[in-house]
Design goal:
Elements: H1 8-21, H2 27-36, H3 41-50, H4 58-65, H5 70-76, H6 79-83, H7 86-105, H8 107-110, H9 113-126, H10 135-141, H11 149-174, H12 179-188, H13 195-202, H14 206-218, H15 230-246, H16 249-275
Helix pairs in contact: 1-11, 1-16, 2-7, 4-5, 9-11, 9-16, 10-11, 11-15, 12-14
Amino acid sequence: MTSLPPRAGRHCHNSVNPLHSTVYFSPDYTKELVALGIEDERASYFAGRAAAMGAVGPGTITATFYNFNHELVARHVPAVWDIASPEAVLAARLRAVDSTLRRLLGDDVVASPEMAEAARLALRAAEGCTRHARPLYAAHADLPVPEEAHLAYWHAATLLREHRGDGHLMALLDAELDPLEALVSHTATGKGMAPRWVIASRGWRRSDWEAAQERLRGRGVLDAEGELTEAGTALRAEVEERTDRLDLAPYELLGADGVARLTELARGFLMTALAAGAFPADLTGKG
């Protein structure tokens, strides 16, 4: 029986995870990867997120990232590893994290006691994560923890993100949602990436998106206007609740007080980053 308030782990994740994601929207990251010779933004994303697993092939990335068109992945992988090694990409990513967080948060926040406290709490939570059946988490767990607090916090956020993400894929499979159906149904909640961002970044076509909508209408998940039905809302809620159950261990280990404090600290960092323009204004929504 959990000692945590309902959805405390999810709320913590929702505050911690976005600061991890800022790097992939950062011009600093683009600059670092271009310096290695990786100029395509999608190749940069594949390389940066997969590098912890080594010079893997396109099948591994499609499997672990889940919602990308395999044709897009295969267009860039394994060719990207001929341009830069995984080790070089990981080093470039960490340099980009450093400059991005300093730019978004400011040097005072980066060097603050609150950042050091958040790093300690997030790393403690990550000690509750498990490697089995969680390939992206397990690969990142083998990386060294950076010494500087803001980088250690980002590293811990990455561990928590990928641990939850690996479990989320299990929940999506159990719900029988294929990659595009997962994206379409998530966008229909109003919380996912806007369709134009999904289509542009994930390698799908508008016809693919519309075909997934039709499949979901056939299951009673979407109505004629593309909105979630009552059954669709229940399905998405169950996916998130199952993800919560699979991701409970790190937050149970941290305890209710620690989770509440980490959520508070992470939310403060996130609000600062958002005010500094960390993400595109039209990234989420149904449009």
